[in-house]
Every structure is written in structure tokens, then in C-alpha cells.
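Re: Re: C-alpha cell formats

Sure, here are both.
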Amino acid sequence: MQELNNLSFDAKHIWHPYSSIAKPSPIHEVVSAKGVRLTLKDGREIIDGMSSWWSTIHGYNHPRLNEAAKLQIDQISHVMFGGLTHPPAVELARKLVNMTAEPLQKVFFSDSGSIAVEVAIKMAIQYWFAQGEPNKQRLLTVRNGYHGDTFGAMAVCDPENGMHSMFEHVLPKHLFAPAPTCQSDEDWQESDIAEFKQLISDHNDEIAAVILEPLVQGAGGMRFYCPEYLRQVRALCDQHNVLLILDEIATGFGRTGSLFAYEQADISPDVLCVGKALTGGYMTLAATLCNDKVVEGISADGSGVLMHGPTFMGNPLACRVACESLDILLESNWQQQVETIEKQLVNELMPYQSITLVKDVRVKGAIGVVELHHPVDEQMDWLPKFIVDQGVWIRPFRNLIYIMPPYIVNRDDLSVLTGAIGKIIERLAESS
């Protein structure tokens, strides 16, 4: 029997994220990557506007990250974290404690962003269980949010407009307030948080925690909102004795213009989830940080044992690469890089606002979003090929065309990305 080539075998046997294996979407085979470019098997190079789902902030094939991985693999690639520790995990925890808000002193490592959220939820529920209030098991969040694809994380994603509605009857029932609409603190109105305020007041005896993506709602709609909303939420959590979990898996490590998005509101969460860019896109790794209040609360029943323990928790190889990635970030002029990207995105994307198909254009930090009036899902039979033919990699979803490029992208390459968005809109207009 003739052996299938890679793409044919892939189409027949490999299930890709959010795709049908019965009717596979068109895909492209990547054979190498460097800087902001992916090289396809046919030799074409395309500029990556997605940072591999927002993780490769330093670009691909970075010599320092490569060297860190090579050095660590010769020492120890993995060892169980139960009863043992190792220098890369200790060093990474020290870096995370030093770069996050001062109250966040404890670090729990996990494998992915979704699991970091699961751990955060467990922390909140265990906190109240140990306090003798086991009825406080629900979470309060806002609509249009996305926190991951595992069951605990799915339960706090938008239950109607999200991607997990078919699981509605098996997920825990949490509380959802309207998504914030304030674009800036100057636009702030008390009405924006009125329903949230009512929910936390009416249900504080059963709410374990509030969970939010600070300032940027990612895969739930690429929506931005103002820092004042976060300040109000922090105050309400304090007033009603509810923990605050912030999910910075997408926004952490500089993407919004500050190292962490919560810094723009001058607040600190009780629990913080980070991932994605933590290793610069090299390895899968995430972390859940918490303050002493959470630790002491979980310990109130005399045990303090957090009931979670991933097999690959604190993987030495991933931790070593993460340490190097954070060093690269902090040693670079990342603030200026993100600010420069932001200005160029504003200049080159905002003109698309006048196109009939376009509902909104918005930019924050190194995130540029063009929202259309209608979804592009029905165009996915031809759209991926068209995008690659423009020399770029952009992955629209629902009615959104957005880019979150590596911080190292230069002006010319960013212009190719923004120009490609214009060509996508033009092509969509022709097919509508």
C-alpha cells in the first residue's frame, strides 16, 4: 500500500483544534521557523501574525531559548515534582514572585492555561471549604469570557456565545454578569457594573470567587474594557468577602502594554493565572500564583493540601526555557516594542473602519482587531489558502480578523500583516 504523504495522512488521522476530522479544513505544513516567519514545505515563507496563539513573543528559533533547552536536556529533562524539586523550578518561581504584584507569593506550576484556571478554581473552593463554608462553590464572571477548554474552565466561559454550549447540561452553573462596555476610564459609568454589583450582593453567600480576563477578553470575542471596571470589581470582592481570580494567560508578559494587565488598574488579585508566553512559545507550561490569604485560608482546616498534582508539573526543561524567556523579556525594550506596534496598528487598521463590512476596529498594546458585521466561518474552505497566498498567517474566527504578532516584528512585516487584513476584507466583500 502506498504510504500517504504528510498532509494526506494528517487529513485522514489527525484531529486539529476546533475542526471536523470528517470534513477537515485546509491546512499547511510548516517545516521550519525563524524570527516572525514560518517556512512551508513548498518553500514559501509567511509572516506569523498570531504568535502561535499568542505565545511566541520573542519569535521563533531564538538562540538563547534554543541554548537553554539544550543545556537543560543534558542535565535532567523531567523528574516528578512530588517530594522533589530542582533549580529551574525554584528559579522560575523566584522570577514570577518578583515580577508580579507583591502579595502574590506562592506558585503552583501546571501544564497549560486551562489547567492553571482549574487550579485557581480549586484554590477558591478549597479556601471556603477549609473556612467551614462549603456552600461557597459558585463563581461569578462576565459574558464574552474565555478561560479554557477543560470542564472547570468551560463552566466560566460564556454559556451562550462561547464554544461549549453542547456541554451546558453537565457543567456547573455559575453566575454571569453583562460584559463591561467601557472603552476607557473617561467613559466609565456606574451602570456598567450595576448588574455585577447586584449579583455579588445577592449571592455572596454562595460565591467562592470572581474570575475575569483583565482588560482584554480574548477568544470569547477580543473585547477590550477599561481599568476602572477592574477597580470596581476588586472593591466589590473585598466588600462581599469574595476572592478575585485574574486570568492573564493571554494578556500576561507585556501584551497589553504593561507587564500584566491588572497593573493598569493598580490592583492585585488573590489568584493569578499565567501561561502562553511564559516559555516564549517553546514548551507547554503555566502557573497559578496566589497570596498568603489564600494559602492561610486553605490551611485553616489543619491540612492545607491543595488537591491537584499534574504528572509533568514543574517540568525542568520547560522551567529552564521559561526562565530564559523571562530574562529575554525583562532585558529587552519590550515596552517600546509594544508601544510602537500599537501606534502602527492604530494608523494602519483604523482606516478599515469606513468599509461597509466592518463593524469595529480596536487596538490595545500589541493586539489589533477588526470586527466584521457577519461571521467568516462559511468562508473557511477558501480563506486559509487565500491568507497564506498573501504571505501571512492569520486565523480569523467567528466575525473577527485579528493579529497579535511577536514583539520583535518590524515595521515592514507588520505592514504586510495589516495590509493582508485589508485584502481579506476586500475578498470577503467580493464573495458576499
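Second one below.
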Amino acid sequence: MSDHQFSKSYTLPCGVQVKNRIAKSALSEGIAEPEGRPSEALFNLYERWGQGGAGILFTGNVMVDKDHLVNANVMIAEDESFLDHYKTLADRTQKDGTHLWMQINHPGRQSPIYLDKAPVSASDVGMPSRMYAQPRPLEESEIEDLIERYGTAALVAKKSGMKGAQIHGAHGYLVSQFLSPLTNKRTDKWGGSLENRARFVLEIYKSMRSKVGSEFPLGIKINSADFQRGAFTEEESMEVIQMLDEAGMDLIEVSGGTYERAAMVGTMQKESTKMREAYFMDFIVKVRALIKTPLMLTGGFRSAQAMNEALASGSLDFVGMGRPFCVFPNVANDLISGAQDAFHVPDLITGVDKIDMTGMLQTPWHMFQLARMGKGLDPDPDMDVWMVYEKITGKKRPVV
């Protein structure tokens, strides 16, 4: 048994104790039933991950509105219709002391046109791609309804037996769209000043807290910055994080970027940053000096040494990983026991620049690994990247 920082337990501000400092950050699974019900495949996947020893597992995006989805076959929690299935998910996942938290989300303008021909957002600023329809601005009554929906989903999480809930406030989804002046052009109380742009997420937190009480953990995933000119800046992020700290949040996860500027998957990082592993470490050091809320950093962690050093610095309280869990479902146990001290995922390079530069195969390749585990199979680190290309594009491998 290791004496690393990440193997130690941690007590959140609400009083809930987490068994270690390793967390699986949210990954969209895409294996729910078509109507949004948790499936047997999800039960299998999360049971496998629960046995893997992490302190916290965050679900992939759970949607608050069946008409607005991030992708097909995602879980939906509009009401208590699927409560029994969420209870099964919680029970199967948490048998070995791992905590399951529901990540709650709305895509806003970031819903592909084949799923959503009438997307909504803070404003009518569209995505720079024909894969997405032009959004319309939400009316104030709709904003208030959405705030209620986030609260309802958090209550579903609590009633199911899950141990927490997280607002997805990063990666360009709806909360992120309200925060960014690039996508929020409103002139009412929901737009303009940073205080107004942050109102949506703060009201969501209040709605959740009023429904779940003070002893149920609530967290948020938020961007360190959007990495786009005129968008949500590092300075603004620090201000919003201070607002969330004062509001009583139990855990703040820091990531970065949007799907237009995907800093969170490492496609934008300098080689020196990748070598250091913690992509957003400089930012979280600044945040730690400002707030007391526990902090989780996701993006780039691959080795026991880097995780231990980051936690030992005192700048963060949890290390988050996503993609290593797709290939190494036992990653937490192996880190804590010392059985393995580094977990590098394949580079997935095809040799075709126009494919590799976009990173278009990264997400589906990893989602295919989740689907394998949902069927009770082991991940396949040697899965052919061209097979993934042919499946998602319907095209044959190009001749190079």
C-alpha cells in the first residue's frame, strides 16, 4: 500500500468523507437506452469502474431536457421516471466505497443538428460549423425553468443513492455559454457584466442546494479559460470561482477550453506542459490563494509522481483523470497499491495530418472502449484507429 498523497481520504466541507484523492472526471458514455434510461451496459461499466478503487466517479453528461442532448444515448434526468434505474446504477457502482456523482448538463448551442434542429442558448451566436443549427436566445421564463431542471436532476441523484452532483460549467456547454461574453450578448439581468453572466450558474447552485440540503455534496466543473479571443478569461474565471466558493460549493473541478478550442484534451498544450502533465496547474495555484473550497484538477495527469507532487504542493485536493480510465479501469487501485505508476493512453496517430490535427478520432476511440466494458469485455489498447475512422465517417481508410 502506497503512502502517496492520493491514497489518503478527504472530508468535503459538507462533512462527507471520500476514501482517496483520485477521481474519474466525467466522460460521455453514449451507451444509455435511446430514451435516456440508464442501461445494463452502464451498470456493467460503472460496476467495473467502482471495483477499480477511485474515490469519486463522475458520470458523463446527464441531460436536464430530452429535447436538447449533447449526443445520442446519453442519460436523462428530467424527473423521477428513471429513478429505479439510477438507484441500480448507484448500487452497482458504490459497493466498494467509491462515490458516484451525477454530472448535470445542458448543451445549449452545442448539440449536433441531427439531434437538435432548434437549439437554445444565452444568445443567437451560432457554432462555426454546419454540424450545428443556429440557436435562439432563451426567454427569461425558460431560463428559470432550466434552473429548476438542474435542481430536479440533483434531487434525482440524491434520491438514487448517489453521493453527489456536479454542474457542468465547462467546455462550451450552456453554463459556459452564459459565462462567456462571446456567446452571451444579453442585455437583461442574465448578460452584460460578469456578475450578470454568472447569475445563471449561481442560481442553478441555489436551486440544487435548496432541494438536496446542506449535507449532500455539490460541485462544478469550470474552465480556467475558454482560450478564445473575446471569450471567458482566466481573470473572469477566478472571479466566478470566488463567487462559487462564497456560495458554499463542496468541490470545484478546473479544466479548460471549448470544443472549438479543445485545451482539455491536450491538443493545444505546449510540449513542456504535457511533460509536466498538469495542464492547468499554473491557474489552480492562483485560485488556491483565493479560496478555501476543495479543488480538483483534470487534464494531463498520467503518473503517480506527478499526481503526488501536485497534491503535496497543497494547490489541489483531488487529481482528475478521464482517458486513462477508458484503457485502465483499475487505475486507482494500481496507483495506490504501487502495481503500476504510469498510465499512458495511445497517441492515436494515423499519419494523415488533416485527421490528426483535428483530433477527430480521440473521443470516439475512447467511447468504443467504454462500450466494450459495457458488454463485459476488457478495454483494447490496440484497437485499430482506422476501424474507428471507418465506423464514424462511413468512409474507407484513405490511401496514404
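The chain has one domain: 5-345. The CA atoms of residues 237 and 335 lie 32 Å apart.
- S.
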